[in-house]
Amino acid sequence: xxxxxxxxxxxxxxxxxxxxxxxxxxxxxxxxxxxxxxxxxxxxxxxxxxxxxxxxxxxxx
Length: 61
Known about the structure:
The protein has 61 residues and is an all-alpha fold. It has a domain at 10-48. The chain has 2 helices and no strands.
């Protein structure tokens, strides 16, 4: 089990990890060296701070 960073909620960790896992499944290069499953790699990247949330406002139509 991968430990989430201190100060990050469980919801934020799971959502961010799942979005990153989708990116990895589409062919993005992992940012941590490991031979684990994509979901675990995504969790390890978030826990290591290699993937962070971006607070970008979406344009309104």
